[in-house]
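Sequence only, no structure available. Ideas?
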Amino acid sequence: MQYNFNEIEAKWQKYWAENQTFKAENNSEKEKFYVLDMFPYPSGAGLHVGHPLGYIASDIYARYKRHKGFNVLHPQGYDSFGLPAEQYAIQTGQHPAITTAANIKTYRRQLDQLGFSFDWSREVRTSSPEYYKWTQWIFIQIFNSWYNTDTDKAEDIDTLISGFEAEGNANVNAICDDDIAIFSAEDWTNFSDVEKQEILLKYRLTYLADTEVNWCPALGTVLANDEIVNGVSERGGHPVVRKKMTQWSMRISAYAQRLLDGLDKIDWPQPLKDSQTNWIGRSQGASAIFNVKDHDEKIEVFTTRPDTIFGVSFMTLAPEHELVGKITTAEQKAEVEAYIEATAKRSERDRMADVKTISGAFTGAYAEHPFTKEPIPIWIGDYVLAGYGTGAVMSVPCGDQRDYDFAKHFNIDIPNVFEGVDISEEAFADKEKTVIANSDFLNGLPYKKAMKLAIYELEKIVHGEGKINYRLRDAVFSRQRYWGEPFPVYYVDGMPQMIAKEHLPIELPEVEKYLPTETGEPPLGNAEVWAWDTVANKVVNNSEINNTTVFPLELNTMPGWAGSSQYFNRYMDPHNSEEIFSEKAINYWQDVDLYIGGSEHATGHLLYSRFWQKFMFDKGLVPKDEFAKKLINQGMITGTSAFVYRDEDGKTLISKGLIEGRNVTPIHADVSLVNASDELDIQGFKSWRDEFADAEFITEEDGTFKVGREVEKMSKSKYNVVNPDAICEEYGADSLRLYEMFLGPLEQSKPWNTAGITGAHGFLKKLWKLYTPFLDETAITERSRSEKEPSKESWKTLHKTIKKVEEDIENFSFNTSVSTFMICVNELSAQKCVSRKVLEPLAILVSPYAPHIAEELWSKLGHSDSIATAPFPKFEEKYIKESDKEYPISFNGKMKFTMQLSLDLGKDEIEAAVMAHEKTQQQLAGRTPKKVIVVPGKIVNIVG
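Reply:
I predicted one. Tokens follow.
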């Protein structure tokens, strides 16, 4: 019977779907195990062969855990809000919901054909109102909370209000805005309702504030730092500028220390932990206050080196700092404004990364040194960021290289406050070797003592205090987009009001166009039906706004990370319309046991999700304050790109072998137009790229046109993707799964080579052939043999395979398991093993990796149920333990023959057996040996 993989795979995919084979129950006597993949964004391109790598690994582990008797939750869904669908809508006018639904259909088909054991009954889509109802609900919970530093957790805003009513805010210890005035209980009572709301906004965990954002005019939206590459938008390559806008922000900074501490509790990759640690950026130092001369203003800075305060020779403010406009002199105004305009075109990431470009402008104003009272010039420079710390630094050029370079460039003094150190060429930053000089009361002190004394003296003159600072900034939570979660917010007298839970979800309205309005409002400003009726409790037409019962709704939508920050919990109870999840469900599943996904999400999704989880833990909604115990970052499958080379005339394309000495530009070619010999289909290329339809192609002497090759990230934009549909059609999903695992360790990047899949496919055909007695009804003799006891060699092959595969899966070393399977099948084939006692457990071992063929073989072995929950074979040591030893028998150190002897024999018994052997007698020829050396389990040497 032939191995017809297409029929077999279609058959079992249909069986799993109809029987809901992988459906998990929320109550079970079995131990739970939750395996999660980072859910995909359903793009129009569908999957390429690089995408399934992590899914295959997680599926192997999920299937293995089912074999081990666990109740396994292995769900899947779609992160279906996003900018690409919106951009497509802008270009075509087609609603993003339509394209998203079509893309999801493609993804689902592709995921199903790869044989993943997902529990599709729990599918979620972040763009579904049934799902984002709960994203809106969590937003409301965060809005109605504040962070109490006394209890070190989020608490209900009502407890804060009660405190204000009882004694004002003088004794309140909270993570809040810095500019809050002290008020009494009487003051609170006398505040107007709007004034009270304004004060509460300064304490809430999500709040409205004027924030510096990355504004992309072409896309009409704010972009996160990770959506910008080299100063332009990752999507479309459009210019990005810095701009102040009123935005919703999440006070993630309240959780900075807990986010750091939590990293010690979770088994996540160290590089990822390091990324989060650096992003959070805890540093210890002091805040110092400098008065601005001839102004009532003050500049507060945070410094990790208060010991160098006497080395300050200038102050540097971020160009966006609020004081810049107030203190800049008339003479410097034009220069400063021009510099600010130029800086606005650079992203924060570019400014941080660019250490070579030195630029700045003098404001004309001076600060006063807190100790010496000397005037200090105030500059602005783009290496200082408004959102980090206070947006101002005390510049000590002798101790900081960026300050040093800035001072050298603008000819600013560089006073030396380090004893015995030469700073003529560069700054000195070695804290441990620091001895302070030229610094009044700090002279002669090492770093630590000088730091403590400087802080003490600053506190004494009320010009600063010791402080711990974090680089982590509050997360902007507004996007000027259409295709995102609507905020459950309407405005009364400019103050945000939350919509009650029973009226959620607030669904996206219809709009005529998906661009910002002519007046610059977000796309929701185009909606005609987008106002909230507080009497009818529903969305109504904007024309009904009357500022008494009908009010405007929020025009921004939530960012992409909103829906992905709690999806792992929603999977536990996805169809619950009354609550985000039942107490029973969350207490059973608790948290994710294994999470697999890309490392690129280290400081985005994975940090924000940990923040939301800790907030929900504070509110008693979840039992764990970390959502995933173990996380693995899968590596990337790279593609081999193809390049044609365009001559400088712009019209001629030159074959790879002829480009030496020419000024050419490489251009990506679709790899489907290139054969195994790197030869380009010229006519196909001309049809594919219209601009080269009439181009001249300079070919090799043999008439072929050769392309260049380069290994790059597999990407649609590089035209080097390989579609899994074609692979599954030609070789089958099981071959694809085995091959992707065989390529190398899960965490490493690996190059794709379609030719290599033939090895995996050949193995499956060998495996199939091994089961011939059960596949061929005419093999009656062979089948009768299959019920007999396996040979000793076959038992050994099976059990060493069980041992190795179990160790590999537990250690996530999936690539070495595939090698083990190949060795096993080769050995069993050589042994002509047809025993059911070997072939049944072998099918189970293979099942997590190649589930379709395993299911078919299982059924051919006579089973009517799925192999999916068959118990994993138990390894037994006795089968691989050697009972005999093949001893080398030597005469005077030279081996003459070997003998198979039991390992149970003692020294005397071994000697007797060897001496009695006829070959020994032949060698001795009647002589009596001087001695016989026996090392049990190793050698026998007859001397003399």
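The mean pLDDT is 93.
Hope that gets you unstuck.
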